[in-house]
Amino acid sequence: MNQIRLDSATSTLILCFADKEIPWSAYWGRPLPPDAPLEQIHQIKPVVRFPAGLDSPYGLNLFPEQGTGFSGRPALMGHRSGTHWANRFQLKEVNHPKQQVILHLKDPVAKLQLTLDLHLDWHSGILRRRTHLTNCSKISYQLQYCAAAAFAIPTFCSELLTFHGGWTGEFMTERRPWVSGISAFENRSGRTSHECFPALIAGSRGFDENGGTVYGAHLGWSGNVCGLAEVLPDGSRQIQFAELLAPGEVVLAQDETYTTPWVYAGVSDTGLNGLSHGFHRYLRQEIIPPKARRFHRPVQFNSWEAIYFDHDLDRLKQLASQAAALGMERFVLDDGWFHHRVDATKALGDWWPDQRKYPQGLTPLVEHLNRLGLTFGLWVEPEMVSPTSTLYQQHPDWILSIDGLPDLTGREQLVLDLSRKEVIEYLFQKLSRLLSQYPITYLKWDMNRPLTMAAHGQRPAYHRQTTAVYQLIDRLRQAYPQVEIESCASGGGRIDFEMARRIERFWASDSNDPYRRQMIQRGATLFFPPELTGSHIGPAESHTSGRVTDIHLRAQTAFFYHLGCELDLTRITAQEYQLLSAYIALHKRYRPLLHTGRYVRLVLDSDQRNGYGVVADNSETALFSIFQLNHPDQINDRTIRFSHLDPDGIYRVKLLEPLHQSIRNLLPHPDSWLNGFLLPAGVLMDEGVSIWMPYPGTGVLIELKRVPQTASE
Ligand code: GLA
Fold first, then answer.
1. Nearest CA to ligand 1 atom 11
2. What are the pLDDT digits (tens) for 616-671?
3. What is the dihedral of CA 418, 495, 299, 476, to 10 degrees?
4. pTM
5. How far apart are CA 650 and CA 662, in angstroms?
């Protein structure tokens, strides 16, 4: 029996394999000592054997195949006009460079070649996997399904955490028992989607934020995706992820290769927070563009909910002046600035300033921003075209469509076919012109409808469209390295690790309603660190829910993330102005901590509350936020139990101002709470502290600072 061992700072992975066979994962969990005796680990191989089944048992491996008798979901499905549909690959070669395993396999009967790539990142413990499939026959191979990775999950993992949601409700999670058979998700929207973030988490019974063993995986792809969690009849479990291919979408000619997207997976024996820390660290160090790794995320003003399509230079200048006075650093001109864009039904594709709103182009606005010291960002939606635009009038054939079927609109727009070179050239030229004419350092790149009949030359083109978007962004980034990009798709419809390679920020949701936002952000932070997540202080009345909330709640909800303001600053009260200014200044003071530390979701022992924080890597400083979202059940309602502090440390605990009056009035020891008092970490984490927040919709910011032990004596 052969063995390969991969180690990271937080985990060890052991692969075992007999000659010619696909390796299986004998262990993936907490780090094992270098000299751990592992010679006999293959003896614990779980063998799938059903009574009244086959004589030759089989085990779940890295790529389960039907040709071995495996009757669960195989990792590969395809055929040559009905033949070569069952596979049995033989291992031909194993390369094992540092932290990596590359397995080369061949199926001599079906004439296919397979390469499995594995890479274990040392620092974060994130395991990255993908698959390449090559057709070695003269006869073309019709690929139906090719798993990017299959993971055998230990049988003690009896619970799943899955994702669902919708517009203004992204990253909702559902906890469920992992039942027999296949639990699957499919996303056919042609973008990452609001409904179905491509990830699964499996864990031991009762796992929570800080406890239990959990395995989590995410497919980094901004197109169609499917994933499944399967319990076989004998209790064995597997998870798989793949790009969802439309019929006939991938037909491999001789020597052609299909490469799957990457799957990113992690394991933690300290619950969900441990898992998230791996993903956050990996994104920060390995995925996002180097520029996005800095912690200074400019506080930005966004014009959308302030003025919508109603652009007027004087008003915009006023808004910019207010934004600068309040301490903001970037001004993003959202939708409505370009040729004849008077409402959402028009002009997409005509990417030049509207002559009526901007007779001298964007220069007068830009000059004003320069004087104020604000950098300039611009909204675009390059993949789309409005049927009434000049572009569509000139090139009605440039859209994705199927002959004989109606061209369905979404938000009254159609989608450009980015597989066409002339479309890419048009977009590159139009965007280049804007980027070279104006000092634009930020693009908010929107995508406001799903792809329906994505066809190029009548063939499905979801994959091509997705890679073409990546290529267009990459080309622009290379040509204009000063430009940062925010990925938006009616809010959080395109948030994933592959997109994260080319952007500095995700717009998490079109909901600025703090109640809704907190739940969205709680789900998003399972995979994404706070600085990648744009979060805005919106108007008092949310335009997506009608809910009215006060400025404290709105500001505190956006506080930990990449902060912005998106409301009419010329109409706020003096008190709101003063509070906004205070929260922005406070955010700037804390953002180095918030955007580099470990994000921690607190265990919720009441549905009425939400709580989370960021603890510095060295555990010296932490900032937590606790919210009372509904009426407290009791006066002494639930204690706040912090986590991830230095267990031997002593901390000064302090409530930060601004503070909602209702909370200040009821503080039992206001002087202590406002000036800080000392408590050992053990008390803070095990016993906890209690703050009465009688009003629903209020919250607090709590700073914890470790004191040198002598100071406490
Ligand atoms: C989408 C975005 C919003 C805004 C509008 C503009 O809905 O998610 O933030 O940019 O488009 O039309």
1. 490
2. 999 999 999 999 998 877 766 668 999 999 999 999 999 999 999 999 998 889 99
3. -30
4. 0.97
5. 29
